[in-house]
């Protein structure tokens, strides 16, 4: 069992190094329901635009304590950034408003 834990730690460290080399920041997106791929792509695009980050990789978390919308959490070297967003109905389907 200790080997499995060790492999998990090695994989996590590898991911951190790979993200640093590719200038990728990991953002956690919390929502009350699972998000569709097109919504995740829109969230990544808007997060990059708002923060000026070169690359953003999203990790999703289901948070049943939320009533609606999403919370995006980005931890950088010097602090944390939280972005709250809501889904706005539109003619072309649901859109995120950040």
Automatic annotation (TrEMBL):
Q: Among the entry's GO cellular component annotations, what is one?
A: membrane
- UniProt keyword Hydrolase, yes or no: no
| Superkingdom to which the source organism belongs | Eukaryota
Q: Which UniProt keywords apply?
A: ATP synthesis, Hydrogen ion transport, Ion transport, Membrane, Transport
Indicate where this protein resides in the cell: Membrane
Q: What is its main location?
A: membrane
Q: Name the InterPro entries on file.
A: ATPase_OSCP/dsu
Question: Single GO molecular-function term?
Answer: proton-transporting ATP synthase activity, rotational mechanism
PANTHER family xrefs = ATP SYNTHASE DELTA CHAIN (PTHR11910)
Its recorded name reads F-type H+-transporting ATPase subunit delta
């Amino acid at each position: 069992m200790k080997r499995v834990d060790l492999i998990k730690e090695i994989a996590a460290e590898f991911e951190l190094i790979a993200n640093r080399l590719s200038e990728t920041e990991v953002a956690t997106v919390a929502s009350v329901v699972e998000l569709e791929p097109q919504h995740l792509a829109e969230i990544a695009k808007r997060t990059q635009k708002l923060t000026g980050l070169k690359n953003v990789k999203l990790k999703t978390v289901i948070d049943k304590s939320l009533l609606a919308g999403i919370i995006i959490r980005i931890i950088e070297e010097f602090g944390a950034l939280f972005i709250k967003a809501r889904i706005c109905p539109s003619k072309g389907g649901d859109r995120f408003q950040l």
